[in-house]
């Protein structure tokens, strides 16, 4: 594990990352999802794709990369872009899981790999709608301690700035971003995913013109049990 210091928009960041197969000449960059970290991605993928230099990154606010600011998805893109420059990293392949898929898409790699990517707005369940309503009411009344009880499990232990960041990014519609992506894309999904539905994956595949869609038996972390097949498809499907 190593770190790089960088400044974006007058904000200082110390980004934790890890490199596997450092002598390889082509790069594959891994971006984790919200509430996750680089170790989850590394544990799954590091034993495959031996011909690539793997770059595993803790996005700010996760893993060992601290964050003291309220950020947007564009901030995460700028931070990641700057880190890749500091690492002399090409954007041959960028793999993004869940929220990391949105960041990966905006980085515009030569080859995009999406694992149950976020970015398609889905209808919220009645239970979630009720929680949002009560949270807004209590917040309006100034009862912030009560409001916290209605937060998503993804953020209930996070700092106020990360909760504000979550609110900035959670309801983004990336349909136009997917549609505008012109390069090669491999889209992998778990058919029992309840966080980002299978229908969302199919929609993303329809939006990205040069894409291939493959689903597996599994949930939001389906890739943990299907890494070998996914990596073989990456090796055979990149341009």
TrEMBL record:
Provide the coiled-coil residue spans: none
Molecular function as annotated in GO? hydrolase activity
Give yes or no: UniProt keyword Glycoprotein: no
The record, for SUPFAM superfamilies, names: alpha/beta-Hydrolases
What Gene3D superfamilies does the record tag this protein with?
Answer: alpha/beta hydrolase
Report the InterPro entries cross-referenced here.
AB_hydrolase_1, AB_hydrolase_fold, AB_hydrolase_sf
The membrane spanning regions, by residue number, are none
Which keywords does UniProt give here? Hydrolase
Domain AB hydrolase-1, chain residue ranges per copy: 28-121
List, alphabetically, the GO terms of the cellular component aspect: membrane
- Its recorded name reads 2-hydroxy-6-oxohepta-2,4-dienoate hydrolase
Q: Which source organism does the UniProt entry give?
A: Arcobacter ellisii
């Amino acid at each position: 594990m190593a770190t790089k210091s960088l400044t974006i928009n007058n904000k200082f960041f110390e980004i934790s990352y890890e490199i596997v197969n450092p002598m390889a000449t082509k790069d594959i960059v891994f971006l984790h999802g919200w509430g996750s970290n680089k170790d989850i991605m590394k544990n799954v993928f590091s034993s495959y794709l031996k011909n690539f230099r793997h770059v595993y990154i803790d996005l700010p606010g996760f893993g060992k990369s601290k964050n003291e600011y309220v950020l947007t998805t564009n901030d995460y893109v700028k931070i990641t872009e700057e880190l890749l420059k500091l690492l002399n990293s090409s954007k041959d392949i960028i793999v993004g899981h869940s929220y990391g898929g949105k960041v990966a898409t905006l980085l515009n790699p030569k080859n995009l790999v999406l694992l149950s990517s976020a970015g398609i707005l889905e209808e919220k369940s009645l239970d979630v709608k009720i929680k949002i309503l009560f949270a807004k009411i209590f917040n309006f009344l100034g009862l912030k301690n009560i409001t916290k009880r209605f937060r998503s499990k993804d953020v209930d232990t996070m700092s106020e700035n990360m909760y504000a960041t979550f609110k900035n990014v959670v309801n983004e519609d990336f349909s136009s971003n997917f549609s505008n992506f012109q390069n090669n894309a491999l889209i992998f999904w778990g058919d029992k995913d309840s966080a980002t539905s299978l229908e969302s994956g199919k929609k993303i595949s329809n939006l990205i013109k040069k894409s291939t869609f493959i689903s597996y038996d599994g949930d939001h972390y389906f890739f943990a049990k299907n890494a070998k097949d996914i990596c073989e498809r990456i090796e055979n499907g990149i341009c």
